[in-house]
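Q: Could you fold this chain for me?
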Amino acid sequence: MPRSVKSNRVGPAESTKPASTPSARERSRLLAELGAAPENVTLEVAGEAVTVTHLDRVYWPAEPSLHQAAVTKRDLLSYLVAVAPLILPHTMDRPLTIFRWPTGIHGRRVLQKHGDMTLPSFVERTYIFSEAKGHADQYLLCNNLPTLLWLAHMAVLEFHVWHSRVRAGPDTPITSTDFASSTRDLQQSIIEYPDYILFDLDPFLYAGTETRPKQPELNAPAFAMVKDIARSLKALLDGMSLVSRVKTSGKTGLHVVVPIRRTVPYAVARELARLIASHLLRQHPREITLQWTVEKRVGKVFVDANMNVRGKSITAPFSPRGIAGAPVSMPFDWRELDAIYPLDFRVPAFTASSRKLRDVWADLEARKQAIEQALAANG
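A: Sure. Below is the predicted structure, expressed as structure tokens.
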């Protein structure tokens, strides 16, 4: 296992090239090939051979309430080809946590953090020291279209990414990429410095059909309450001169992020998130909660600031979710909030309209803020 400070990645992962996104011509070719392919086929993707099988296996059954036909592996691969230029910049250089449903969403779900399977040569990976185990674990990186499609072939229906990246850059004075050797090296490396502060807004208003204490299902009154709290959070952040971005989680809630330069470690980012969430709670004590106990959240919106920890992850923008309807975690402009509903964004609809899609999070890197200056300006 490599321990080099120069690079913790192996094979293609040692490349210093920026994210490679496929051309429109290549994506059109792949979409045509997928549409006409038999059950099993080997695709040429960015010069790599990617074998995919059982293309007509149903991952998401038909959803009559949405007038939506079953969504197959073929459909998922087509979707990922169509949105590759949008999703890849958000997965690039970020350790993955993946959720697999080998037989579809009504079958067994497999949570996987470590790449303990046989990997094709084009799949980049990194090694990160485990303080609990005393050695480094291997993590996958989704840095190219062949990897994205291979993961979908492996029944990955959800792509979750860390809040920090394995590559240093101009937004940080931290240069160490040795996060495999020891706890000390890990804590002094770039992986300890997140790209944003995250607020996860989750409603706990029940639709009435759930078995408690199961998490509430998506329903309009609950999501309307989440949007109200999101507006209040944005107003609070605006008052601190902090730019924020928002997306649907793909399930019942919203994710709000504050892009920051990589100058503060996770511990500081988490404390800042906690302080902001506590202030929001004082403003809206009847509507929100910071309680971990599910029973104490009922009737309120849970504002989770505790996700700002190394090893935690967020659903990548444009990632599907493994629930009925094949919804997608969708970034959108704050001005669109009133009209947003999670099930408006689903895999089948996006495949056909991908050319009209835009990524309002595309400027996330450019909008990074010096969090120290913002704090100083606010006393």
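A (continued): The domain at 193-317+361-379 is CATH 3.30.70.3300 (Alpha-Beta Plaits).
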